[in-house]
Amino acid sequence: MQNQTSPLILTFGAADPVGATGVTADLAVFSALACQGLAVTTALLIGDSARIEDLQETDPDWVSDQARVLLEDAQVAAFKIGALQNMEHASAIAEIVSDYPDAPLVLDPFSSRLPEPGEDAEELLTIVRQLLVPQTSVLVLSQVELGRMAETWRDTDNSEAGSETDPDVGGDAGSPGALEEDVAYLIELGCEFVLVTGTPAGPGHGDAVRANTLYGADGVVRHDAWQHLPGPFLGAGGTLSAAIAAYLARGADTPQAVGLAQDYVQGALANAQRYGMGKLVPNRFFRMQFTPDQ
Known about the structure:
The chain is of the alpha/beta class. The chain has helices at 22-32, 60-73, 87-97, 121-132, 143-157, 176-188, 236-249, 254-270, and strands at 8-15, 36-47, 52-57, 78-81, 105-107, 138-142, 193-200, 209-216, 219-227, 273-274, 280-281. It has one domain: 3-Layer(aba) Sandwich (UDP-N-acetylmuramoyl-L-alanine:D-glutamate ligase), CATH 3.40.1190.
């Protein structure tokens, strides 16, 4: 018998019965990348590979207690926080991770798989922005999600100059200028790096090529172009953020972890599987596939 030697990662998120998203998917990624996952469940889902039919949120005290008991027993090398639906969950998780500032934190706060939070959506975003973003090592967002995360800042700063749709106010939501302003704002809050997915690949690339761009305090850290793969996929973004957390836990620096994670996700998508009538699910264990004669 021996003590734990592979890095431990604690992930917060929903339990998806099909394993496409949430902590179920994160645990698969961690295992595939030689890490051990620990999970705090924030919600139970009813759904398949096509849709979510219902969601039951976990009591906030249970979220806290799950995490505290685990963290009193074991030392984690990294945290990953997935999509958040509940303000009390966000506040509780922010308080928990604040006690472990040396462990890198990957925050991936949105998921198209889950329903919108409803009337508390803006207040939830404010809590995430104020309490979790400043503690984050890598914040993973699409361009649209980036705009949502920084929208309150843009509206507030320009409330006397014009509306949020005015092209002269902070730039268009998807323009390079607005994107960089939004990233800079989040980094000023204390976030170390922001990875924006689905950015333009740049000159010389066709429409079938998209890019992911990693930003730090000094601007662009890396810009990786990828050939678009036919989907649709379910859980690609969560696979990326979980892989980043795994490589950080294994000791890679952030630019290296992001590059390795993107390579891994590209392979998982290229080998994706369709479980039923829904979307394709990334094959997190594609490197461990067996041929029929093995």
